[in-house]
Design goal:
Length: 350
């Protein structure tokens, strides 16, 4: 186990800076998920920790040691990739043992570690098979096994589940989480999938365009998103955003509707309300003309527009709701569930 410190890390390719002063302290045994849309710099950041990309400026430390100039093999990390990167001509056992053999560990120590990892991952029955004789989920386990046998200080995961189908992804997600808890190894996990991020991470680092938008627990990020970007990226369906004018504790929406707010801010803002926080209320001030209800079984998503505007809005209602196109529904939103962001910068205003 080890702490990791990312200290003002930047990465440039030629004249283009793609990561900007990334700052983050990761605790012993913590599971950190780096999440953000494609191209935001997640893989580059992970690869810098792995030693597969050079650091342009700043420092990466593991434990108390700056590792910028250490070779990947000397960093005491193990990486699990999206494409598994298994050797096709080797058996599962040989694949798992390979890294240890290179490091010249004694034969019986290698055997012990491979068997122990195979037991943890329940793949003992497949040890003599080749990767092509395994399902995607089994291959993923072997890739994990290869990381576990190394007994590293740090696990790095680069979108390890994206090649699996939806059901298996959920199952493997749980397995990775349980495994990481059990082994207590400090881990960094990269994904573009916000559900994976929310369910796996002790904390999430939300990246956007090479900047850290927020670094916090899943609940912090959900309840107090630091920016419009984070608010829109985390949570499904996405948060609704409505331009509004703030004055004297009131928000005026583009159709003239006013809502009470606890914020003292004055001027143009962006109001954010999650679909699950729009509560049906006969006396509610937020009037929505229904375009399309989507009945999902446990919930109904009502997609519509705020009456008198073209502003799209989605409400998530419990159970099956009989709303149909053209209906006007009324909602209120609890004051504490209204998020106010600066209209210009998109940053949260408390
Ligand atoms: P993500 O993993 O979030 O999808 P990446 O870390 O792969 O994003 O890429 C971040 C940015 O860096 C992107 O704009 C990408 O085009 C750029 N980039 C990545 N690798 C290189 C490279 N070898 N040369 C130039 N630009 C690169």
């Amino acid at each position: 186990m080890a702490k990791i410190k990312l200290d003002s890390l930047t990465k440039s390719y030629g004249a283009t800076e793609v990561l900007h002063h990334i700052q983050g302290d990761i605790d012993h045994g913590e599971f950190i998920v780096i999440v953000g849309p494609s191209g935001c710099g997640k893989s580059t950041l992970l690869r810098m920790v792995a030693g597969l990309e050079t650091v342009t400026t700043g420092e990466v430390s593991i434990g108390d040691k700056v590792i910028n100039d250490l070779e990947p093999a000397d960093r005491d990390i193990a990486m699990v990739f999206q494409n598994y990167a298994l050797y096709p001509h080797m058996t599962v056992e040989q694949n798992m043992a390979y890294g240890l053999k290179i490091r010249k560990l004694p034969k019986d120590e290698i055997k012990r570690r491979v068997e122990e990892a195979a037991d943890i991952l329940e793949i003992r029955d497949y040890l003599k098979r080749k990767p092509r004789q395994l399902s995607g989920g089994q291959r993923q386990r072997v890739a994990m096994g290869r990381a576990i046998v190394r007994d590293p200080q740090v696990f790095l995961f680069d979108e390890p589940l994206s090649n699996l189908d939806a059901k298996l992804r959920v199952q493997m997600r749980l397995e990775i989480r349980k495994l990481q808890r059990r082994l207590g190894v400090t881990s960094i996990y990269v994904t573009h999938d916000q559900v994976e991020a929310m369910t796996l991470g002790d904390r999430l680092m939300v990246l956007n365009g090479g900047y850290v938008e927020q670094f916090g627990t899943p609940i912090e990020v959900y309840e107090k998103p630091a920016s419009v970007f984070v608010a829109g990226f985390i949570g499904s369906p996405s948060m609704n955003f409505i331009s509004a004018d703030a004055q004297n504790g009131l928000l005026t929406l583009p159709n003239g509707t006013t809502l009470r707010t606890s914020s003292k801010t004055v001027g143009p803002v962006t109001l954010g309300i999650r679909p699950e926080h729009l509560l049906p209320d006969e006396a509610g001030a937020i009037e929505v003309e229904v375009d399309l209800p989507e009945q999902l079984g446990a919930t109904t998503l009502v997609h519509g527009r705020i009456v008198g505007t073209d502003l799209p809005i989605t409400a998530s209602l419990n159970g099956i709701n009989a709303a149909s196109s053209g209906d006007v529904l009324k909602f209120n939103a609890p004051v504490e569930q209204m998020h106010i962001f600066d209209a210009q910068s998109g940053k949260r205003i408390d």
